[in-house]
Specification:
With 69 residues, the chain is α+β, with helices and mostly antiparallel strands. It contains 2 helices and 3 strands.
Length: 69
């Protein structure tokens, strides 16, 4: 099944890095932008797992549409 991710919010505060490490706005925007678009997944849970694994960040919220073939 294909999903078109239109908006995504990652939990950039939940990091394994020390407290002094913060991503810049440019870096967070790039991570978000890189994960928008069409994804292949079995269902919504699989979609979230796929994006989390690919990005390395937990998802706080996600908006998507089902893509028809």
């Amino acid at each position: 099944m294909q999903f078109y991710v239109t908006n995504i919010e990652f939990d950039f505060d939940d990091s394994e890095f020390d407290d002094d490490f913060k991503l810049s706005k440019t870096e967070t925007d790039a991570i978000i932008r890189d994960n928008l678009g069409v994804w292949e997944a079995d269902n919504e849970d699989d979609l979230i797992e796929e994006i989390t694994e690919a990005s390395g960040w937990c998802i706080k919220s996600i908006d998507y549409e089902h893509q028809l073939k």
